[in-house]
Every structure is written in structure tokens, then in C-alpha cells.
């Protein structure tokens, strides 16, 4: 039986729409993901929209699939908006193809998702490659008892007066408090001559002594930053300023688990689970060379099997699911560095880059000259690292775009050659770039784009649902 053969009756409008969407899903999978579909029935199907990256968890998708037959395997790749299901027989897969195409299911956040299924010869998934934690990184589980956790969380007084000695800031995406030294987000450094009165709260004395004695840490820290993340909050990828802090940086996660992404300059990303009541220890390469950050989202991709807790989220796509985030409070301990850093990573070391005192531009012209010199030089230096990542869309941005509601209006300021304009066909994307020739390329690719300056956009304020500005404006990354 050929389910693609519909010529003996006239399709209804809805059927036509579904067919169009299904064909579009097939093209998108091939063009953006290299997933090849076939037009005859096989045991395996790719389920477009039914993926972890689309907010669909294993527990929502599996029951729907099992109604059509015995599910032999369900592969859910991390951060992808699709998954692969393998049935015991091609007949069962065909049943699912007929029954579930265009069918609506409810995702992990209560959102409605319409599934589009296509046959594949076999589930294809590129291996993530790296299966190890970044060198120098360690996650110590259950380092604190539940009672201590409660006590420590209650010890943070978020409500106290801002004039208090311990500086509290409400950053855009999370609550932050500093002890020992204030951390300045303008220069990502501390004022080493101005320690805060009071030092670290007394409650930590015995705990830090214990960690020292048990060998989890080697130095007694003198700076503490407390961050509170609500579901949906995150922190941009960054490396803690080398000249500001010594080698060892440790962070205690209380209240809720979270997945932190570590990224090597060559583009390798390692998602690491930080369970509730665990201590993350970053030393050496993981502290100096890898960036770490938390993607702002309401759920994480985690291992489904109960035994697996802390550490790397593997690419075992047969075992991934979604976990809703809770409120996480992190206590990050660092030791302020009193001498310049002499690490083995000069490219990312602010102590070792031959910069005299930082120049402050006196005029717009000087500023743009400075920008040209510095930005250009930096790009030249890291060109080797960038060559592999420059032309492919950043997966996190792809996920962001794919997660936006259908029909959203998105402006991509500094859109370049339009790399992101075609990621999600259900969005209305408008690109904008200063370069006429790049905008022309967008036009050739049949994207909507216009020539314009990011500082004077020809778009009405508030007219877009989401802005996108990548690799065009660089904000200095805040530290945890
Ligand atoms: Zn360094």
C-alpha cells in the first residue's frame, strides 16, 4: 500500500495543508540536518517537531507512538526538534505514519505540537564525538546534606537593604550577592584593594575547612558570589578573568539541578549535569580555556536512567529526556589573584596579552579605529579556531529560533549572509545588515533583508516578537 498515492480522490483543504507541511518537514530535515527520508514504508520514522529541542519529552512522545505498535527504540538527540522511532515491523511503522501525521500532542510546557512523520532507512545521528569531561573538571555529588542545604539556603538574606556591606545586585536575569570582594561586571574583575568588610559569612568556615581537609579544594577561597536562577534564567558563556582569580574555582549547586555547558574554543560543547547538592570544581584547562554558561530555558536535556546523575550528559540518545528546572542557588567560591596569571593558555589570558593600559576611546572615530584594530587582530589570531564554526549556525541560536511560536516576527540585526533567516520556516524573519553585498546575498537566497545600521534601525520599536543580533554586538560576559 502506498500512502503517498492519493490521486483517486480529491484532497480536502486540511489534507492538502498537512501534505504540504509534511513535505516541508522532509525538505528541512534534509537541508539542515542531513536526514534523508524515503517514500516507501520502513521500520523507522523521523518524527519532525517531536524532539527534545522542541520541548517534547520522552514521556509525552512515547505513549503516542506506542498506540500504533511496539516501539523498538526511540532516539531523541539533544537539542533537536525531531526524534527517530523504530517499530518492530514496517507494518506498525506504517500505522504510525498514517495515524500520527498532522496529529497534535502537548509538549512538556503545555504547548501544542503538531507531528509530521516520514520514513527513514535507519535512524541517523552524528555522534557528539567527545565523551569526556573537560580536563581539570570534577563534579562531587552529595557533598552537602539536605539539612545543611536548607540551612545554607536560608542563610542568604535576599531582602536585606542594598546599603548593607555585602553588595547585592539584581542583574537582568538572576539575583546576585557578593562577599569578600565585590565583583564588577563592567570589567569582570574585583577591586583587590577594597575587600568588603565582614569577609565570607561565618556559616561557611567549617564547610570550607572540611572540603580542604578532604581534598576537594586546595586553597581557601576569599570571595563568594551567590547567584539565584529561576527557571528560564541563564548566564552567558564566559571564562572567569584570569588576572582576577586563582586557578581553582568551585561552585555549589543548591535547591535544584542544572545543566551547564562547557565549550572549547574549537567548538566542542560538553553539557555537564550539576546535581542538587553537588560541588563543581574547575581547575587547569577547564578553568582557563573552556567557557562555561547556562542556557536560559525552562527545561534541560538529561539522562532518563535513574542511576546516572552528575557529570557529562552523554550522546546516548536512546536515554535522553527533559527535566523541568527549579530554583537553583549557586555559591561560587574563588580566590582573588594577587600576581599576574602565567597559565599555559596565553591566547585567552588577559595577563599575558601584550596590552598596555586599556585605552579609552576619546571620540567615536577613535572608538571605531580601536574596534577595527582590536576586533580585527583578535579575529586574525583565532581564525584557526573559527574556521570550523563560522559557516555553520550556532546550535543554540537554531534551538532558540525553532522554539519560537509559529508566526513570530523576528529581526536579525547584523544578519550577514542570512545564515539564520531560513532556520525556522514558520517565522517571519527580517534581516538587516550594513553591508549591501551581504544583503544582496540574502536576497538571492530569497530571504527578506534590508540595508541598515544597527544603531538606527528602520524598524518600529516593539514591532518584533524577538530580536536576534549575533556576532555583531559583543557584550562583555558577566562572571558567575
Ligand atoms: Zn591566564
TrEMBL record:
The keyword Ribosomal protein does not apply. SUPFAM superfamilies: Clavaminate synthase-like, RNA-binding domain, RBD, S-adenosyl-L-methionine-dependent methyltransferases. GO terms for cellular component: cytoplasm; nucleus. Residues 220-337 form the Fe2OG dioxygenase domain. Coiled coil: none annotated. One of its GO terms (biological process) is tRNA wobble uridine modification. Its main location: cytoplasm. Interacts with TRMT112. Belongs to the alkB family. This is tRNA (carboxymethyluridine(34)-5-O)-methyltransferase ALKBH8. The gene is ALKB8.
